[in-house]
Write a structure and sequence with these properties.
The protein is α+β, with helices and mostly antiparallel strands and 86 residues long. The chain has a single domain, classed as Glutaredoxin. It has three helices and four strands. Strands 2-1-3-4 form a four-stranded mixed beta sheet. A hairpin with a 2-residue loop joins strand 3 and strand 4. The longest helix is centred in the C-terminal third of the chain and has 14 residues. It is globular. The chain binds FE2/S2 (inorganic) cluster. FE2/S2 (inorganic) cluster binds next to helix 1.
């Protein structure tokens, strides 16, 4: 089954706005969810310079950019994308 690709931006703007906490997201996922996702940090997604994309921290999930992501929100987004892949 295809895994959901979660790319957490750890560029400077995102890192200082909370991306470091997001990198611990696996601690908040169920064992089943962990098997369905690939989580990695990425360099600047090049959206922090463009206000139309919103505010840091940014996460890209299966190619879709999300802004102002916090831990609880990211858990929900991951669950949503896992459901989309079913
Ligand atoms: S530092 Fe995250 S998008 Fe630029």
């Amino acid at each position: 089954m295809k895994k959901v690709l979660v790319e957490i931006c750890v560029g400077t703007a995102c890192y200082v706005m909370g991306a470091s906490e997001l990198m611990l997201i696996e601690d908040y996922l169920t064992p089943e969810q962990k098997e369905r996702v690939e989580i990695k940090g990425t360099t600047c997604l090049d959206v922090c310079q463009h206000s139309e994309h919103g505010k840091a921290p940014f996460v890209r999930i299966d190619g879709q950019i999300y802004d102002q992501v916090h831990v609880r929100g990211l858990v929900n987004l991951i669950a949503k994308h896992i459901a989309l892949n079913e």
